[in-house]
Amino acid sequence: MFPPIPSNEWKQYWTTDENKRLHSEETCYKSFRELPNDWTVIHTTGWQNKTGEFQADGEIDFILINIAEGVLFCEVKGGLIKIKDGVWYQADKYGKKAGKERKLNKTPFEQAAKSKYAISNFLKENLPKSAQKDNPIISHLGHFIALPGVEVDDETLGPEGPRVLCLDSNDLEIASEKILAISNHYELQPPGESLTSKIIKLLVPTRYFNSSRTRFRGKDIEIIKEAIQVLTQNQFETLESLKENKQALITGTAGTGKTVLAVEKARQLSELGFETLFVCYNKPLSIEINEKLSESGVTVKTFHQLCFDVIENANQMSEVADIEKDDEFWEETLPTFLELAAEEVGTKYGAIVIDEGQDFMQLWLNTLQQMLDQDEGGHFYIFSDSDQNIFNRTNNLMNSNFAKFSLRQNIRNTEQISNKVRNIFGHEKSPLEGVDGIEPTFYETNDDDQISKRLVKKIDEILKDPFISEDQIIILCDETRRRERFENDLKSITSLKGKSIETSSIKRFKGLEEDIVFLVLPSSPPDTDYLRKHAYVGMSRAIASLHVFGTIEDKKVLNWD
User: Fold this and answer.
1) Calpha distance 372→354 (Å, rounded)
2) Strand, coil or helix: what is 168?
3) How far apart are CA 23 and CA 244, in angstroms?
4) Cα dihedral sign, 530-533-534-535
5) Rounded CA gap, 408 and 394, in Å?
6) Which partner from 253, 282, 306, 476 sits 20 to 30 angstroms from 318, CA to CA?
7) How far apart are CA 332 and CA 329, in angstroms?
8) Which residues does residue 456 pair with via DSSP β-bridges, in sequence order?
9) pLDDT tens digits, 480-501
């Protein structure tokens, strides 16, 4: 039964906000609960369905699913029911309006059938074509009505309503027998175990989202609350909306959960049987995502790793081996070879999810679309943040015909860190309040001796807290010489006991996150846009504590104060 209702929540569940008891649906729930264990029963499923130019909304009271008997949609009408000259009327049994008839604009059979066809369209769009190759989805579906407040004579209820498709109060006492009769009436095709499982996952999805890592810390750092671990309503609504859009662009500023959603969308698509590719630009990010999706069946690769793998499968590696590995090779030559190799060996995916979309050139995106199997899915989702385009690559995403969604609330950083990141480009503050934390620190210096001394002193101080370990800290610096110098100086910290603090370039750590971030800004940025983009990416990696080293001029450019 979906949802399962604990006894202590039973009354509340069946009572509306207007304090009206849903007796009829409650009666049906109790009846269907007694069906054999091979039946799955879902109470209340909303749907959307495009009708002409308009998006229609609706709801079906119950869906009953069985691997051998099919999928049945049930519309419940409570109280007193009568049909006069083909027109249906309903009246309450109890209360102030008891006995007062009201005309139904649509018959219960019409409502049940409309829901059946709407959800049939939804299943058709979201199930792999391979799951529908033997029989169309509609061949597994039927509908009926339940009138738990009345007894119905053994006569037809009109052309749309053979008596077998109506369960009255007496029929609900022997629901198992009557439900089988409904299935037999339709002569439904058995969906089987695999298709049944996919249908249930679509209708009552279970979603587990990988939360930001949270550890108990000492006096210097606030505990990151549960609020930062879960998807906000905005993220959840976006994820649900993607079911209605096979191809979409999802944008959001740093920390708004793009990668979280991208991972979960890839997982969903794979669970439904689509051959799914998750592709990003950054190698360390691909390693982390591959670990998260290791048991899902999703193929995870960086774009250039995908290029080499497909080219190798086509036995064409010798053709690229001797080409100079300059910018033209990575940006144009290799993607062109990918397209040719993929066409030759027939590499296709029913679903492709792209993270770090701002780092993909238009040629790369076009090539990936050529690898999309339109007949077996055709799902194509891009997650992007133009302000993180530190490689200054160009594409046509914002002018594309993809359905577009925007994520608004930061779900990675504390509110204090988020504010500093937001100020860099003047992003608007989300109306939703973030998680409270400690204020980030800006050290006004670009002298490496001073930076090194402050790094050693502050990290040594942090590591004295028993709730903090060295693997919660990272130093980000794009200049290799400086980074190696800081890494070597940190060895003087006795509390490390031979262990080390991780260091990385900003580019390499893009897409990842850490509890405590020390960011050393570039010593000689070519222009302010370069500085802003690199600071934006680096600062937004910090979950709970952020320390930035730069000049007074840098501080002004970043709108720190």
Assistant:
1) 12
2) strand
3) 33
4) positive
5) 24
6) 282
7) 6
8) none
9) 999 999 999 998 988 887 888 9
519 closest CA partner among 474, 561, 489, 463: 474
What distance in Å separates the CA atoms of residue 112 and residue 96, rounded to the nearest whole number?
29
CB 148 within 8 A of CB 172: yes
The CA-to-CA distance between both ends of the chain, in Å, stands at 55
List the structure tokens of 529: 């846009």
Are the C-beta atoms of 351 and 274 separated by less than 8 Å?
A: yes
Number of Cβ within 10 Å of residue 500's Cβ equals 13
Token pair of 353 as six digits: 């999810």
Give the span between the Cα atoms of 124 and 545, in whole angstroms. 47
Contact 12, 153 (CB under 8 A): no
- Asked whether the predicted pLDDT for residue 306 surpasses 90, the reply is yes
The closest of 452, 422, 413 to 535, measured between CA atoms, is 422
The C-alpha atoms of residue 80 and residue 97 are separated, in whole angstroms, by 12
Contact 407, 258 (CB under 8 A): yes
Say which amino acid occupies 460. Answer: D
User: What was the pLDDT predicted at 220?
Assistant: 41
Enclosing H/E stretch for 120: helix 108-126
| pLDDT value for 214 | 41
Amino acid at 283: K
Using pLDDT thresholds of 50, 70 and 90, give the confidence band for residue 218.
Answer: very low
73 DSSP β-pair partners: 63, 143
Going edge to edge, which strands form the sheet with 102-103? 80-84, 87-91, 102-103
Mean residue pLDDT across the chain:
89
Q: What's 175's DSSP letter?
A: H
